[in-house]
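Input chain follows. Return structure tokens only.
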Amino acid sequence: MNIEQAKKAIKTAWILALVLGGITLICGIFSKHIQYFVPIKANLWSILDAFIIFGLAFGVYKKSRFCAVIMFVYFFDSQFRFSINSWTISNIPLALVFLFYFYQGIRGTNYYHKLAADEEKE
């Protein structure tokens, strides 16, 4: 992975985190209106969840390795608990796509910092 590929992986990860945060926020705000259409229990915790995701997205945008790892783990944990609690596997394909790109964000931040450190040495 070169520096441009690392930047692209980071950008994709933080944009997907913003999308995820936006969806979570919308579900949290309109949970009373959509509860009959979408089998999801969303409330004030969903809104808090969205702001956590937005914070992690900002961290990934700033190329934080820590935030990239936490975003991956946080999303994996939430999807695992959601699948267990709702007994559904219909969200697994989309969750795998998000997990793939969040993992690429981890790789991108790691390579970015490695390559940036190598450039400073030269």
